[in-house]
Amino acid sequence: MMRSDLLPSLMLLLLRATRGQFPRECTTLETLRSAECCPAHPTGRPGDRCGDTLGRGTCQPLLVDMLPHGPPFSLDAQDERALWPVQSFFNRSCVCAPQYWGARCDLCKWGRTGPACLDRAQPLTRRNMLALTSEERSRVVAAIDLSKRAIHPDIVIATQRRESILGPDGQTPQFEDVTVYNLFVWTHYYSVMPTYVGNGTTVGGVDFSHEGPAFLTWHRFHLLQLERDIQTMLGDPNFALPFWDFTSGQGCDLCMDDLFGAQHPSDREALSPLSVFSRWRVVCEDVASYNSLGTICNNTEGGPIRRNPGGNVGRPMVMNLPEPDDVRQCLSTERFDTPPFYSTSDDSFRNALEGYAEPNGHYNSSVRTLHNLAHLYLNGTASQTHISPNDPLFVLLHTFTDAIFDEWLRIHNPNTSEFPAEDAPIGHNQAFYMVPFWPPVRNVDMFVTAPENLGYKYEVIWPGTPPFIFGIAWIGSLRSPLHTSLQRLMSQICTVVMTDTNHNTNISF
Ligand SMILES: *[C@@H]1O[C@H](CO)[C@@H](O)[C@H](O)[C@H]1NC(C)=O
Ligand SMILES: *[C@@H]1O[C@H](CO)[C@@H](O)[C@H](O)[C@H]1NC(C)=O
Ligand SMILES: *[C@@H]1O[C@H](CO)[C@@H](O)[C@H](O)[C@H]1NC(C)=O
Ligand SMILES: *[C@@H]1O[C@H](CO)[C@@H](O)[C@H](O)[C@H]1NC(C)=O
Ligand SMILES: *[C@@H]1O[C@H](CO)[C@@H](O)[C@H](O)[C@H]1NC(C)=O
Ligand SMILES: *[C@@H]1O[C@H](CO)[C@@H](O)[C@H](O)[C@H]1NC(C)=O
């Protein structure tokens, strides 16, 4: 099943990748009972924890954010995700020196490279999928497709909630292998699942990754994790996720067989059999059984991806994608987020980009725009929160959303204090460790500009740039390699122009 030339890189992955829930060696009965997840660095001396014998990190108590969260959630004592990860899983973990990262401090922090992780890496460039050459496109599609099949060599997922995690006999931890892509879907599901209160009953109204300020920071880390996992899987540290400009005015322009799948000729809600993604099967769809049994989604796959772009005739408002002016308007919203830091926030950049307010930030309960609208437009798997990442277009929809977030950070240069420290919904305060990523990472760690701090940048031509640049963008859309390189060159020039003019013109570029 696995190509043999991939084996060396998968061995490497065995040593290096560590993000998600949880490293395999932290899921033994003893480790779970000790509440300490401090694995040894692969080249550390006997007894090593966190690379401490190499000076990379130390095993320390985890200090969690105790500031109060806001309403409506009040089932903290019954939900294993409250005070993540201390309340239900681990209260000690590795704390790495600033240049290192990973469950064992075995990786370089984002944007760092070299044997001691002290060198600054060139930021990776996340580009428009349509600006890639045909070879680059096939490589992206093949990499994402492989990630659906490649078992994550390091991370395993829980298949039961905490109260049943040791199995019926109390001695058998309930974790299992998961593929790289299914882990990406599982983490999202885990962050949105309702609270199980026992006796076949679940209570909703809780969401650790949507409808609050953490929406942007959570999904940013989610993508960073997938990108690193794919880099490690391929043995290629330069692999970058591309984005889908869902404001191109061309509908689902990535819905083609050599990209993310055209429509099936006779079943409007299915993918064309010529697309590799028509063979994908979704995970996390058995919500009714998880909710009544108190179980969790696992790596067992079910039905195919459903998608009917623009096909929701019962809801005309979501039959068209957002427009460039919507992006321009949300970028000019001054405040990152506003009380109650929820899907009802008014004048909030986050709520406008997430899509529960008008693009200019004005709250209007009947509006769906930007990110939400792009999801709803796809009318299928990608439109249902708990399973949406099963459609690989999710990845590119979210890189574009993240690009808008990064552009907003660059323009507005916010103080950290603009991210609420308290009273946001559970999971959404700035110092909260995002559920369920491992090693623990806080919302505020992702509230920084990507090129300077996270090792990647976007190549986007933002609305409002001079018309001649748009001309080049259009030429680029003809997709010959020459035009593509011309577009790349022009967008670099354009970035410089935007940076220079932005100081005195605020957001009008
Ligand atoms: C961490 O968890 C262990 C095991 O449940 C417990 O014995 C210990 O007291 C906890 N430590 C702290 C600081 O909460
Ligand atoms: C559990 O649910 C059953 C059926 O709905 C009910 O009869 C029983 O009283 C419940 N038990 C508890 C402890 O709530
Ligand atoms: C995995 O999920 C499937 C489908 O919901 C379920 O039938 C199966 O029992 C689960 N497996 C484990 C190990 O929990
Ligand atoms: C897709 O559109 C149809 C027709 O309006 C609607 O009934 C269905 O609920 C939509 N499905 C999703 C998942 O949005
Ligand atoms: C809210 O949005 C709807 C749909 O676009 C519109 O008809 C309505 O006038 C808006 N309400 C306000 C108060 O702006
Ligand atoms: C950020 O905000 C805090 C609290 O309002 C303030 O004390 C601090 O000086 C601000 N920092 C900068 C760089 O503006």
Automatic annotation (TrEMBL):
<keyword id="KW-0325">Glycoprotein</keyword>
<keyword id="KW-0560">Oxidoreductase</keyword>
<keyword id="KW-0472">Membrane</keyword>
<keyword id="KW-0470">Melanin biosynthesis</keyword>
<feature type="domain" description="Tyrosinase copper-binding">
    <location>
        <begin position="391"/>
        <end position="402"/>
    </location>
</feature>
<dbReference type="GO" id="GO:0046872">
    <property type="term" value="F:metal ion binding"/>
</dbReference>
<keyword id="KW-0862">Zinc</keyword>
<keyword id="KW-1133">Transmembrane helix</keyword>
<comment type="pathway">
    <text>Pigment biosynthesis; melanin biosynthesis.</text>
</comment>
<keyword id="KW-0812">Transmembrane</keyword>
<dbReference type="GO" id="GO:0004497">
    <property type="term" value="F:monooxygenase activity"/>
</dbReference>
<dbReference type="GO" id="GO:0030318">
    <property type="term" value="P:melanocyte differentiation"/>
</dbReference>
<dbReference type="GO" id="GO:0042438">
    <property type="term" value="P:melanin biosynthetic process"/>
</dbReference>
<dbReference type="InterPro" id="IPR050316">
    <property type="entry name" value="Tyrosinase/Hemocyanin"/>
</dbReference>
<dbReference type="Pfam" id="PF00264">
    <property type="entry name" value="Tyrosinase"/>
</dbReference>
<keyword id="KW-0503">Monooxygenase</keyword>
<dbReference type="GO" id="GO:0032438">
    <property type="term" value="P:melanosome organization"/>
</dbReference>
<dbReference type="InterPro" id="IPR008922">
    <property type="entry name" value="Di-copper_centre_dom_sf"/>
</dbReference>
<comment type="similarity">
    <text>Belongs to the tyrosinase family.</text>
</comment>
<keyword id="KW-1015">Disulfide bond</keyword>
<dbReference type="InterPro" id="IPR002227">
    <property type="entry name" value="Tyrosinase_Cu-bd"/>
</dbReference>
<feature type="domain" description="Tyrosinase copper-binding">
    <location>
        <begin position="210"/>
        <end position="227"/>
    </location>
</feature>
<keyword id="KW-0732">Signal</keyword>
<keyword id="KW-0186">Copper</keyword>
<keyword id="KW-0479">Metal-binding</keyword>
<feature type="signal peptide">
    <location>
        <begin position="1"/>
        <end position="20"/>
    </location>
</feature>
<dbReference type="GO" id="GO:0033162">
    <property type="term" value="C:melanosome membrane"/>
</dbReference>
<protein>
    <recommendedName>
        <fullName>5,6-dihydroxyindole-2-carboxylic acid oxidase</fullName>
    </recommendedName>
</protein>
